[in-house]
């Protein structure tokens, strides 16, 4: 055997040895970590924070995740599925622990304040989630189950519970927008002379800063709703 042939054989043997010693990737295993629903949810929230709800598209979401759209579609079939993930993520943060003690009013208060605070941080999603079916959203269904159980424990007729929840939610969603409203939203400016009483009421409004004013308004409204619902139940109006 010539020296060239021997050297070539030695190189082949060395390469074969390195190949044997190198860890091999399992067949069919992707080179990157598989996407999770939590990753998709976080990326979708970031998109909405940056660009509003209009910025949430499947192509934009895939780009933010650093994957091809086809990889994203392996986990969510359509934008509707992404919205359900977002719905479940937010509803899981709503506090229903107040109902654990079997007292309806404290439970409703804690739930309502928590609900408002969660959505005040995600107002672009309110118009979507407010009308999104709860189908395939286990955390959302669990939240409603806990609230319903709290109503039942207080003696509410089963057929009126959902109506009462919807009435409260309508107020909660609107109040979430009030949290982010500009401080001068009711300033009448050059129209003050034509609305002197309203302008004076705005000037005398209690609180410092929009957050305390929104809290005051929410507290008044929630008190009124709780009192009204309690009175109707006590009088047999339900």
TrEMBL record:
Residues 34-94 form the HTH tetR-type domain. Pfam families: TetR_C_1, TetR_N. GO terms for biological process: negative regulation of DNA-templated transcription; response to antibiotic. It comes from Cryobacterium tepidiphilum. Residues 10-24 have a biased composition (Basic and acidic residues). The keyword DNA-binding applies. Transmembrane segments: none annotated. GO terms for molecular function: DNA-binding transcription factor activity; transcription cis-regulatory region binding. The lineage of its organism: Bacteria, Bacillati, Actinomycetota, Actinomycetes, Micrococcales. This is TetR/AcrR family transcriptional regulator. Keywords: DNA-binding, Repressor, Transcription, Transcription regulation.
